[in-house]
Amino acid sequence: MLRFAANLSMMYNEHAFLDRFAAAAKDGFSGVEFLFPYDFQPEEIRSRLDANSLTQALFNAPPGDWAAGERGIASLPGREDEFKRSIETALKYTEVIGNKTLHVMAGLIRPDQDRARHRAVYLDNLSYAAHHADLAGVTVVIEPINTRNIPGFFLNRQDDAQAICAEIGAENLKVQFDCYHCQIVEGDVAVKLKRDMAGVGHIQIAGVPERHEPDIGELNYPYLLKLIDSLGYQGWIGCEYVPAAATSDGLGWLKALAAQGLTELKPR
């Protein structure tokens, strides 16, 4: 049975952030994810999870200076010490919040920069992150992201991400398969899910091209979600989309899946 996590960075923006946990639980979600918890104490977030019987599926390690446009530091030469500190911070949060999956963003690269050097730094940093996350019982995931949404992002393709994980060889390093990004960059989403499922640690969904609900756009999510279920995927599926209107009003797609027995909703 599929398990869906509401992405509280994109969904339920009708509410203040800490109130989004209750809103997601009221609609029947049993899990949540979001980009970053670092504006809050981890105990505060954990209390919201516990009060609403929610599981934290995932959040991201510190990404550098997000407000200034940085989108991760894992592949950035000269930032290795900062990266190590960011992993230390992230794992302190996972210890309290309880999620077992941590997304590490690669960062940006300019056309004039040395890609081979960035890749070498990326692999070294990911090896460090995977080792220390393993000691904490946490899986690290890396995500290929399209360059329309994030121009210059270092990691874009599923095969490249899988190759990086294979080269490092850590059992707790996997790929975050975002169907939205994959469709924009490569297409052929179903074939890649079949090919790569053994190396997938987290899945995210959104409609293409507007990034609204998964029943809006060019991707056939009823087919893809049944495929994901048939492939035996046991992890969370993050709903990382921007609702077209009020969040709760756009959950017809999720209720339809529940009616088919593909997921379970427990409104509270």
Describe the structure in your own words.
With 268 residues, this protein is of the alpha/beta class. The chain has a single domain, classed as TIM Barrel. 37% of the residues lie in helices and 14% in strands. The chain has an eight-stranded parallel β-barrel with strand order 1-2-3-4-5-6-7-8, surrounded by five helices. The protein starts with a strand and ends in a 9-residue tail after the last helix. The model has no long low-confidence stretch (mean pLDDT 98). InterPro entries: HPT_OtnI_isomerases (IPR053398), HyI-like (IPR026040), Sugar_Epim/Isomerase (IPR050417), Xyl_isomerase-like_sf (IPR036237), Xyl_isomerase-like_TIM-brl (IPR013022). Belongs to the hyi family. One of its GO terms (molecular function) is isomerase activity.
